[in-house]
């Protein structure tokens, strides 16, 4: 077989990395190369690709170390039995690529994952070596996100956390039975164990830094994971409950959802069609409700179809929950606590903060609420103000048709 050059490897391994959605850079530590020392930073501007905690867009070089793998997971295009073109970077090649891309202002960080080659420990060693060279040899101060290998030695995974801003390990599938069926070489118990160890190391390091100023940082951006949606029989209720458990048990920063995409030469146990992309979107919305709106997993599950366990695709989860719990509405905008305001369809976190701040000084009317929101029409059936009361509107049988978004045909050549 002809030897591949770096450009050819990059084309293959960048394309192979596109299936991993968990590459956001939120939670990074502020580092800079001001003063003439070091290379890179996590504070500059770049090509929009991922987002920092303050909302800035930065770009990441997102690649696999190799797309060869000793595992044969049915859903993975890089599985052992897959007929794809293989490539492999050396650790030094990844380091050189990262530095070259950064110096040309193409990127501000690195997202590095890999198939498993030879053994879990060997693969983890290669990933750690990339991060070590960048940090210790080249004093790279940009963002680094490493995917860890679940069966790797805990000491190797710990080293990854010392060099990377964020580490992650994919749970792959929402249910233990699904993982056993589609990825028999992987163990849900070992994955959970690795995530629990990472959580413990993060907590221990934070405690150490409170006592000792020069204690090393450890994965300051925390850990994240990804679940594949639609490859197995898990419904949205299963996924929501699993995500909530991961947040609670392992203090994850993010759970990412990736809609299953049919792959070439697919196994017969996989579905022939991909799930609707809107399903992935609704799961992200439900995730947002748990993380920022105070919803419990059980509340969101109550908005799913009782037969299929699926969230509705035509309306968002918060509206679905509100339509199923009309007994708690309408809500008095001027008296309701923050937790209840966040449950009103159409009100976001920023709008609720504005309402709470404004009502300290005056009683808010419907026009005041309209100025803080995008669409007052969606909110009106669920609120009470001094000049507005929905009377029987909240109890109408056709309320869903009044508040659900209307289908709109976009014009290709519209001004």
UniProtKB/TrEMBL annotation:
User: Where does this protein have coiled-coil stretches?
Assistant: none
The Radical SAM core domain covers which part of the protein? Answer: 64-200
Q: Which cofactor does it need?
A: [4Fe-4S] cluster
Q: Which InterPro entries match?
A: Aldolase_TIM, DNA_rSAM_put, Endo/Exo/Phosphatase_dom_1, rSAM, rSAM_sf, RuvA_2-like
A GO term, aspect molecular function: metal ion binding
Which UniProt key words apply to this protein?
A: Iron, Iron-sulfur, Metal-binding, S-adenosyl-L-methionine
Q: Does the keyword Lyase apply?
A: no
Q: Does the keyword Iron-sulfur apply?
A: yes
Entry-linked SUPFAM superfamilies: Radical SAM enzymes, RuvA domain 2-like
The identity of this protein, by name, is: Putative DNA modification/repair radical SAM protein
């Amino acid at each position: 077989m002809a030897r591949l050059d770096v450009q050819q490897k990059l084309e293959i391994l960048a394309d192979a990395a596109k299936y991993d959605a968990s590459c956001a850079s939120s939670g990074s530590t502020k580092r800079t190369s001001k003063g003439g020392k070091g290379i890179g930073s996590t504070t500059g501007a770049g090509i929009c690709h991922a987002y920092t905690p303050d909302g800035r867009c930065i770009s990441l070089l997102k690649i696999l170390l190799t797309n060869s793998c000793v595992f044969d997971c049915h859903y993975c295009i890089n599985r052992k039995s897959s007929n794809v073109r293989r490539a492999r970077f050396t650790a030094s090649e990844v380091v050189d690529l990262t530095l070259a891309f950064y110096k040309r202002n193409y990127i501000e960080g690195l997202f590095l994952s890999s198939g498993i080659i030879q053994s879990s420990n060997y693969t983890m060693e290669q990933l750690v070596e990339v991060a070590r060279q960048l940090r210790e040899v080249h004093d790279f101060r940009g963002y680094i996100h490493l995917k860890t290998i679940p069966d790797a030695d805990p000491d190797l995974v710990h080293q990854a956390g010392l060099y990377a801003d964020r580490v992650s390990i994919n749970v792959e599938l929402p249910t233990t039975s699904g993982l056993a069926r589609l990825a028999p070489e992987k163990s849900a118990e070992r994955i959970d164990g690795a995530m629990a160890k990472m959580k413990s190391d993060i907590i221990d390091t934070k405690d150490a830094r409170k006592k000792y100023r020069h204690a090393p940082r450890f994965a300051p951006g925390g850990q994240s994971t990804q679940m594949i949606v639609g490859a197995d029989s898990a419904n949205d209720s299963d996924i929501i409950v699993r995500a909530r458990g991961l947040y609670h048990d392992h203090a994850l920063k993010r759970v990412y959802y990736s809609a299953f995409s049919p792959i070439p030469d697919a196994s017969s146990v996989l579905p022939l069609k991909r799930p609707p992309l809107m399903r992935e979107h609704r799961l992200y919305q439900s995730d947002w409700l748990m993380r920022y709106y105070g919803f419990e997993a059980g509340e969101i599950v109550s908005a799913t179809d009782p037969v299929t366990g699926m969230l509705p695709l035509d309306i968002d989860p918060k509206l679905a929950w509100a339509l199923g719990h009309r007994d708690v509405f309408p809500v008095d905008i001027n008296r309701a606590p923050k937790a209840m305001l966040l449950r009103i369809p159409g009100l976001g976190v920023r709008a609720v903060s504005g309402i709470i701040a404004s009502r300290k000084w005056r009683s808010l009317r419907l026009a005041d609420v309209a100025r803080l929101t995008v669409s007052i029409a969606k909110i009106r059936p669920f609120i009470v103000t001094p000049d507005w009361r929905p009377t029987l509107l909240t109890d109408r049988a056709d309320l869903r048709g009044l508040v659900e978004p209307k289908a709109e045909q976009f014009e290709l050549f519209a001004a």
